[in-house]
Amino acid sequence: MNSKQFLIHLVSILFSIALAAKVTIAVESQSISLPGCPDHCGEIKVPYPFGTTQDCSLPGSGKFYLNCTQSSLFLNSSNIQITNISLYGELSIKHFIGRDCYAKNGERENNRPWLSLTNYDVSSDRNTFMAVGCNTVATISGYRGDREYNTGCISTCDNMDLDNFTSNHQSCSGVGCCQIPIPDGLKSITVSLSSYYNNRTFVYGFNPCSYAFVVEQGKFKFSNASFRELNRTDVLPLVLNWGVGNESCDEAKNRDNFACKGKTTCVGANNSLGYLCQCLPGYEGNPYHPAGCQDIDECKIESSCGKNSICQNLPGNWTCICPKGYYNTSKTECSKSVGKNNPLVTLVLPLCTAVGESVLLLIAVLLIYWGMKKRKMLKLKEKFFEQNGGLMLQQHLSSGSQSQETTKIFSSEELKRATDNFHESRVLGQGGYGIVYKGILPSDNKVVAIKKSKFGAEKCNEQFINEVILLLQINHRNVVKLLGCCLETDVPLLVYEYVENGTLFEHIHNKGRGRSPLSSELRLKIATEAASALAYLHSATSTPIIHRDVKTGNILLDKKYTAKVSDFGASRLIPLDQNLLTTVVQGTFGYLDPEYMHTSHLTEKSDVYSFGVVLAELLTGRKVMSFDRPENERNLALFFVSSMKEDRLLEILDNDIITEGNTEAFKNIANLAERCLRIKSEERPSMKEVAMELEGQRAMVMQQLGQGVHMVSQKTKNLPTKEPSDPYAIDPAGR
What we know:
alpha+beta; Laminin; Jelly Rolls; 6 domains; six-stranded mixed β-sheet; 22% strand; disordered C terminus
C-alpha cells in the first residue's frame, strides 16, 4: 500500500469513528418516557403514551394511565397485570385459567374467569381459545360492541388416549384438547366449563379436572404433561389491542392533540381502535415522544460501501462518497480515474451516465412498468379463472344445460363496483370462513348478496365447479338462489339473491331490539317451509344433499316472512348406493346430532335432529345453549326432551304463541320435535315425513282460523350428482 492509499483509509476510519460517536450520544440521550417520568416498572419498560402517573401518560384519556405497585404493572386501577407493552398497538397481560374439578365424593370446584374492557379489545390475530380435558365442554361468551357472542368446543379422551400422548404431542383437535379462533372486536370474555358426560367416574382417576382459557398463540402447547402443568398454573399470557383515540388518521391529523410527532407516519390501529404512530423508514425511537423519531446512522450499523468509498449518513438514508481522484461506478463502489485531464472521465462519462439513467428511468416508468403491470393483471385473472374452473363452467353454460338469462359469470371489476370496492359499510355479516357483502349490480341496480371467503383452495379441482353447477340448478322457493359467481380472483366470489329480513334467530331472540315477536301462525309457516326445503334436498334431487348445519341462523326470511334455507358450507352429497358417509364432524354446537358426533357417520337423519332443535327453539323461544340458565336447562335439546317426558310442555312454551285455540296443535308439533330429537337415528322420522306432518298441522290451524292454505311441493328437474358449493361460505377444497 502506497502513502496515498494509506491516507485515504486513515481518513475513512476517522470519519466513521466521529459519526459513530455522534449517533451513540444521540441514541443514549433519547428516552422512551417523558422527562422526569419513570420508564420502567420493575423489569417492564413503560414507554409514552403510557405512564405510571396521570402527568406521565397521554392526556385526554385515562386508558394510558398504568398502576405500578411493588414493581408489578397493572392496567389502570384494575387487577389486570401487564407483562409487556408494544408500541405496535399490543399489550401482553396475565389472564386466569378456567377450571372445573370433581372430587371422588362428587363435590365440584370450578370458576368462570371473565375479562371486561372499555378502551381495549382482545386480539383475534394473536390469541386462541383452548380447552384441555377428557370430559370437557368449554364455552367462551362475550360482547362485540352491543352484539352478544357465544361459541365453544368439546374435548374427550380416555386412559388409552392418555397413554398415546407423547411429550411433544401438539395436536389439539378434540382428543384431550380442542381449540377455536376468536373473532375480532371482543370487549369482554367469560370462560365456562361443564362435563360432556354426566358420569364422570371413568375419567376421574387420570383427569379429575378440565381447563379452558384464551391464550397468546404459541404460548401453550398440548402434551401429556399438560394435565399436571395446568393443575399448578393459575394464569397464562393474553394479548390486547390498543390504539390512540377513536378516529381515523385523516380525522386525527386535523386535531391539536394529534399524537404522532416528528419523522413519523400514522397508521390504522389493530381492529379499528383509533390509530397508531410509526417511525418513518430510516428513523427509530418512540414515535409518540415529543422529541419524535431519531435518524438511524446506517453507516454505524452496517456499511455497504466498497473499499475505495466512504459511507456518509443522510437524514433517513445514506450514501457512498468517493475521495478525490475516484469516481462512482455504482451506488457503493468507486474506481480510480483514468487520467487527471481525461475528457471521458471529466465530461463525457458523467453526461452519458446522467442521460442514460434518465432515459432508462423514463422507459421503465412509461413503457415497461405499466405494460408489465397490465399484462400481469390480465394473466393473473386468466390464471385464477382457469384455476377456479371457469372454462368448465363456461362450457356447461354454453351447452344449453343452464339458462344464460338466470346464470352469469361476473367480472371482478363488476363486483368491485357493486360493493364500493368491498367497503366495510356494505358488510352484512361475517364468520370464521368468509364475509357477506350487500351489492347493487351496476347493470340493472339489482340488490344481491356477495360472498367472499377468507380462505382459498390450495388447488383448483373439478369438484368446486360441479358444486356451483349443482346449486345453480336448485330452484326451490325456500332455498336461497345462487345467481352466479366470479372466478377472476384468488378465491371465487359467489353471488346470491338478497334476502332482506334477517335470520330466524334474530326474530326469535332479538325481540325488543328492532324485531317484533313472531306469531304462532308465522312460526308454523316458517317451520313448514324450512322442512319442505330440507325434504327436497334429501329426496327430490338426483343425489341426496345433507345440509349438515341446520339452525335458525341459517334460515333467512324475506319481507313476506318466506323461509329461505341458506349456508351450505358444510353440506355433503350421499351417493345413491350408500346411506351414510364417514366425515370429520362439522356443525354448530347445540344443534349437532349426538350419534353423528360420536361415530362421525353422517346420514340424512343428522339434519332431522338439527331441525328438531329448530322446532324446540320456535316452540320455547329459548337459545339452544345458555350458561345463564341452570345446569339442567343449559342444553335446549336435552331440556326439551326431559320436559316432554315429565309432561311439562305448557310450562316451557313461549308466551308469545300460546292462545286458547292452538294448544293441541303445538302439542302435536312438540311430539314431532321430540321424535326428531331421539338419540338413535333409526327412531327419527325422515325429513319428508316431518314436512308432511307440519303441512297437515298448518292446514288444520288455517281451517280453524277460517283461512285456506295451499300445500304444493316445489318441483325442479333432476340435478347432477356432485357435492354442492357453499351459499355464504366458500369452500372450494370440498370439505
